[in-house]
Amino acid sequence: KTVEALGLKTVDGSPLDLSRIAIEPPRDPSHGDVATNAAMVLAKAVGENPRVLGERIAAAFESDPDVAAASVAGPGFVNLKLSDGFWQARLAEMLELATDYGRSQIGGGRKVNVEYVSANPTGPMHVGHCRGAVVGDALSNLLDFAGYSVTREYYINDAGVQIDVLGQSVMLRYREALGEKVGEIPPGLYPGDYLVPVGKALADEFGTRLLEMPSVEAMAIVKDKTIDMMMAMIREDLDALNVKHDVFFSERSLHSGNGGMIRSAINDLTLKGHVYKGKLPPPKGQKPEDWEDRDQTLFRSTAVGDDIDRPLMKSDGSFTYFAADVAYMKDKVDRGFEHLIYVLGADHSGYVKRLQAVARAIAGDDLEITVLLCQLVKLFRAGEPVRMSKRSGEFVTLREVVDEVGRDPIRFMMLYRKND
Question: Fewer CB in a 10 Å sphere around the end CB: N or C, the chain?
Answer without folding.
Answer: N
